[in-house]
């Protein structure tokens, strides 16, 4: 039934990725640098956003000011062709870097 399919597709969904942050973070950062031409700082911020999508928390994880994180976000958007934080994170985790995150393997 089409109505049933529409109801199912509009149901909110959450996806949780679990990975070993210490081992996999560097691999994810390296992949992000190669795929998107991120600088070291941009790759660290993007990786932190995957671990905690709240900008303030991600900035704290990489020891930068929130204003600096906002500035770097603009570059991340440019380099990934995204325009929102949620789109950026989705773009990254649905790509090759996401395979490492999903697998939890080193």
Word description of this protein:
- The longest helix has 16 residues, at 21-36.
- The chain is built from 7 helices and no strands.
- It is mainly α.
Give the helices and strands, then pairings.
Elements: H1 2-9, H2 21-36, H3 40-51, H4 55-61, H5 66-80, H6 85-93, H7 96-103
N-to-C span? 44 Å
Amount of helix: over 70%
Uncertain stretches of 5 or more adjacent residues: none
Helix- and strand-based class? mainly alpha
Helix-strand pattern: HHHHHHH
Q: Average pLDDT value?
A: 81
The share of residues in extended strands comes to under 5%
Shape field: globular
Discrete helix count = 7
Radius of gyration: 15 Å
Largest sheet: none
Number of strands: 0
Q: Can you describe this structure in just a few lines?
A:
With 106 residues, this protein is mainly alpha-helical. It has helices spanning 2-9, 21-36, 40-51, 55-61, 66-80, 85-93, 96-103.
């Amino acid at each position: 039934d089409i109505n049933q399919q529409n109801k199912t597709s509009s149901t909110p969904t959450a996806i949780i990725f679990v990975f070993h942050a210490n081992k996999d973070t560097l691999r994810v950062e390296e992949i992000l640098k190669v795929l998107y031409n991120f600088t070291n700082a941009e790759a660290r911020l993007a990786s932190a956003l995957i671990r905690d999508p709240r900008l303030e928390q991600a900035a704290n994880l990489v020891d930068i000011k929130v204003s600096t994180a906002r500035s770097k976000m603009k570059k991340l958007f440019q380099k990934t062709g995204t325009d929102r934080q949620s789109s950026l994170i989705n773009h990254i985790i649905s790509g090759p870097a996401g395979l490492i995150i999903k697998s939890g393997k080193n």
